[in-house]
Amino acid sequence: MNRIAKLLKTKYPIVQGPMAGITLGEFASTVSEAGGLGVIASAGLSPEKLKEEIEKVKNRTDKPFAVNIPIYQPGSEKNLETALKADVGIIYTSAGSPEKYTERVKESGAKVIHKVSRLKEGLKAEKAGVDAVVAMGFEAGGIIGRSGVTSFCLIPELADNLSIPVVAAGGIADERGFAAALILGAEGVEIGTRLLATKECPVPESIKQAILKATCDSTMVIESPVVMRALKPELSGDSENPALGGQVSGLIKEILTVEEVIRKIAEGLNKAKF
Amino acid sequence: MNRIAKLLKTKYPIVQGPMAGITLGEFASTVSEAGGLGVIASAGLSPEKLKEEIEKVKNRTDKPFAVNIPIYQPGSEKNLETALKADVGIIYTSAGSPEKYTERVKESGAKVIHKVSRLKEGLKAEKAGVDAVVAMGFEAGGIIGRSGVTSFCLIPELADNLSIPVVAAGGIADERGFAAALILGAEGVEIGTRLLATKECPVPESIKQAILKATCDSTMVIESPVVMRALKPELSGDSENPALGGQVSGLIKEILTVEEVIRKIAEGLNKAKF
């Protein structure tokens, strides 16, 4: 068992990418039940609503799950307190300074992982005391930071320079990506876009179909106000609200269940060869 | 032996990235002698000068080598004819339509590989009849195309959709990158930036030192007129002529000989684990 599976206490070292408005209690519990780490996205939720979503997970599974706290979001402090009070074992911070909440989380006894997109942020997160970092490569969907560093370079750079374990995010949709990330030095992976194209995912069918049609160059980078990667509007059919998604969309060719996605990635690992 | 080593007839499926003004006859022959495919960059050379550089390689090694022809460059057609007349076995086209020269190269009996940065270009190159494609990820140094697709996504996308073999370029400096590229579906790799920081490389010492100091986010994308990745000027100390280099600079921590670089990457493969 590697350090990430041990830290998260999950069957597989696979973390579900938090997606605002999408990965709430129902979806997160499905991922946790499948052996990954389900993550409730707290962005946009009131503390009351977050509490409800946490209860939903607890009613559906006794497996570990996390709550994502995007630090820059208004209300993030109240949501953090809500999660800690509800005894959520893992807090996943992102989009802000790791120093802001790390001490508070650790003092409560919970674990904290933090998302970074360049070495400097990784070193800062380690110094702040986080238990693991998520390395967000430029190819990822959603908020990607400004560094532009890709998974191929960011994973080994963080693995070489940090003592805490690294989870790779961006570019991973199947067992090949999982194996490549581990070879480059990650001890776990985060799966985002691949989980959008699942039967259980509560996004409009048009977004799932857009992912199936996409090639890897069907995404674009937007700034509003943070830097994000989304599907090009000609694909998702909505230019006002572009659907967030990663370059890895081009590798996704069928809609599966969450359980099938997680199992294929985790158990296919042994088929990956060089 | 995989299809790329067979096609190139080299000891290892490792191609040296062509770098204008740097990888001429002397450097290319050193790479070929070390078991990789040395590549003379013809950009900026007159046909007479190119002929001289080809002779230099032939005088120094009997191993296979290639000439890179950036298609968009003025004079590329004359340089192509010079290379074919000198019986160079492998032509490496880039930066332009693969249709322009492929038929001519094939008709001469030489092999042709072509650099692409998105699926559409890969399909076009295969249709044009090239023997292999080089998948140039966004993290690579030098000319990178406009797609922005990273190695993590581009390699498997091309491998899944083409019948011809794929060589991965961008993000590879050690055996971990080599193994990850093979796992993602490549059959060979191209090494550029890692070969800049070698004892034999005829670039100013300041550029080699800049690479050693770099982190993976020490590069920037410039357009003039093609899209290129270069080291940030604060690193290379020259804001008028930025030194081209890839994100992988951040993983390069010592100056080695060309032979050491190639051997470490090729023979370290078996140490790579997941």
Automatic annotation (TrEMBL), chains A, B:
Cross-referenced InterPro entries: Aldolase_TIM, NMO
This enzyme's EC code(s): 1.3.1.-
Domain of life from the UniProt record: Archaea
Coiled coil (UniProt feature): none
Keywords: Dioxygenase, Flavoprotein, FMN, Oxidoreductase
CDD domains in UniProt: NPD_like
Claim: Oxidoreductase is one of the keywords in the record: yes
Entry keyword Acyltransferase: no
An example Gene Ontology molecular-function term: nitronate monooxygenase activity
Designated name of the protein: Dioxygenase
Organism: Archaeoglobus fulgidus DSM 8774
